[in-house]
Amino acid sequence: MVFGTLATALGAWFSWRHRDKTVLALAGPVIANALIVPAYLPLLLQGIGFYTIPFTTVSLDGAYLPMYLFGLVSTGIGEAIVIYALGLPLAWALGRSSLRSQLGDSSGFE
What we know:
single chain; mainly alpha
């Protein structure tokens, strides 16, 4: 709960700080989640009794760095696909709709 919230807060801060550059702003959640989530996930899995990755024979014992690197790449790719393939077109569509003016929004979704 703490580290997921931290990743979300850092991603949101980065997005807000670069709000005038939509493509760059969307990189905030991708980077924050890719760096933070894989740092605690192997520890969490071991803590609840998973000593191997489910459906595989890969052991988590003594393999923190490889697990972190795998998580970094896989989480980063997953986040990037969701944010850029789904979120960016949605942001552009909302920016062109009348919804933005109805809500009184003057953000830079263009």
